[in-house]
Specification:
single chain; alpha+beta; 4-stranded antiparallel beta sheet; 9 strands; 29% helix; globular; disordered N terminus
């Protein structure tokens, strides 16, 4: 009887010890698994930036109203993650905001899901025709650093009683610098990109 009790006690102790080891192994495995997954998602390289040069071209007409312009970044699935420029007119001009079709549709969707008013945070006045430069430092609208990988650069221009233009092109951003250009049209000139070390 005593031997059986001791035997049961030892096997119970052994079971608990083995169980503790198994739980520890699972916990450590999960922890290392998370690290491995985190390591697989390489974040935006420190010191890199994406410079975006584009031109707003005036048409050869007497009457001209400044266009609305939006420049933003979408992730690989097409979700907007950072608005770099939003040049619109407030007040009475707000009825023309939906003319920035893609940006406005995305913003309405985002607002219905998460709330807040991005327009009041990032919008600025409309600009005269000319050449402009923007820089993206890999930070999204929520102020977090994004991962390396595939993105879409979007430049959209709409003008009252004028044309509509959208340039949306895929870019892959990693650790290596790159330069590329996308052809413009009508009142939106070519868009030139340089992914580089911060100047």
């Amino acid at each position: 009887m005593e031997t059986n009790k001791t035997s049961r006690f030892l096997s119970r102790r052994s079971f608990l010890a083995q169980g503790s080891k198994a739980l520890a192994a699972l916990s450590l495995g999960g922890l290392f698994g998370q690290r491995t997954m985190a390591q697989e998602v390489a974040i935006w390289p420190e010191g890199m930036e994406l410079a975006i040069d584009f031109e707003v071209i005036a048409p050869n007409t007497g009457r001209y109203k400044r266009p609305y312009v939006a420049v933003w970044i979408e992730d690989a699935s097409g979700l907007p993650i950072r608005t770099l420029a939003l040049w619109i007119q407030s007040g009475k001009g707000s009825r023309w905001w939906p003319d920035l079709r893609r940006w406005y549709k995305n913003e309405e969707s985002r607002k219905s899901q998460y709330g807040g008013d991005l327009i009041s945070l990032v919008s600025g006045p409309t600009r005269l025709p000319g050449k402009y430069n923007l820089v993206w430092d890999g930070i999204n609208d929520a102020s977090y650093v994004v991962a390396q990988g595939d993105y879409y650069l979007c430049v959209e221009l709409a003008r009252e009683h004028g044309p509509y233009n959208l340039i949306r092109e895929k870019i892959t951003l990693g650790t290596e610098p790159l330069q590329t250009s996308f052809a413009g049209n009508d009142e939106l000139g070519d868009v030139n990109l340089e992914y580089r070390v911060h100047s």
